[in-house]
Amino acid sequence: MNEVLDRLRGRLVVSCQAYPGEPLRDPDSMRRMALAALHGGAAGIRAQGLDDLRLIRESVDVPIIGLWKDGAEGVYITPTADHAAAVAGTGADVVAFDATDRPRPDGRPIEDTIAAIHDAGRLAMADVSTWDEGVRAAELGVDAVGTTLSGYTGAGPKPTGPDLDLVEGLVAAVSVPVIAEGRIHTPRQAAEAMGRGAHAVVVGTAITHPTTITSWFADAVNG
């Protein structure tokens, strides 16, 4: 399975996800979005939801980072070991899960989620919000650490840009690949993340979320 991470080294992963109630919240729409991203040069896909993941897996032969969002508050990215096992069953190569220090819905430790992923023969990616969480996840045996949740778990307004300092700090502290993710909205930011030592860069909203992209332009035009 290390070949999966080797295939992503120095490359772009595109996150294909739509929010509940949106026109593109449909497995085939996300499958088509994934194919479009691959045509543009993406080396891997990140996607959520069992139906989406199964359909995308049938259509692509690149590495897939899979997750299951269940809920909208607290820990909801692949929140339990059972969720992780289900994601692994879709054929996703890597299972991403919330590895923050917040309470988990089933009360079980992160170690159980990592074990469920490894027992299924998949790689475990810890989505973290802080340096401490990333270091701990690496110590517990995850295969990669993502900066996905930086800026999303604390009080106060969400930052506008990516947490590249966290990327650099984790690269210096852990021996597993660090994947930069979260609010990377421009090619320049993606390149800077690589310059900070990221193993790969995940971009979602700026590529695959038309509603948000449209709002950026509408706000600029409307003044």
From TrEMBL:
Q: Which Gene3D superfamilies match?
A: Aldolase class I
Pathway(s) this gene product operates in, as recorded in its UniProt entry: Amino-sugar metabolism; N-acetylneuraminate degradation; D-fructose 6-phosphate from N-acetylneuraminate: step 3/5
- In terms of superkingdom, the source organism counts as Bacteria
Group of enzyme by EC: isomerase
The record's catalysed reaction(s) read:
an N-acyl-D-glucosamine 6-phosphate = an N-acyl-D-mannosamine 6-phosphate
What family is this protein classified in?
Answer: Belongs to the NanE family.
Function of the molecule: Converts N-acetylmannosamine-6-phosphate (ManNAc-6-P) to N-acetylglucosamine-6-phosphate (GlcNAc-6-P).
Q: Which HAMAP family match?
A: ManNAc6P_epimer
Q: What protein name does the entry list?
A: Putative N-acetylmannosamine-6-phosphate 2-epimerase
Q: Please name the source species.
A: Saccharopolyspora gloriosae
